[in-house]
Design brief:
Layout: H1 3-13, E1 18-20, H2 21-31, H3 35-44, E2 48-50
Helix pairs in contact: 2-3
């Protein structure tokens, strides 16, 4: 899956520009990418993480 396809799937999971941390982690696993890659993609497409399990966001 290329970067644009990954971004489209992520944006579909976060239509309001926000995604819960647990959802982002599960989506990363589902898409076969690392959590770090997910974070980088979220930053790139300006989607905010909510309900962070670590309390960072």
């Amino acid at each position: 899956m290329n970067q644009e396809e990954l971004k489209a799937k992520i944006q579909a999971a976060a239509p309001e520009g926000r995604i819960p941390c647990a959802t982002a982690m599960n989506l990363a696993k589902e898409l076969g990418i690392s959590r770090k890659e997910m974070g980088e993609l979220l930053n790139e497409i300006r989607i905010k993480i909510t309900q962070c399990q670590l309390g960072c966001f």
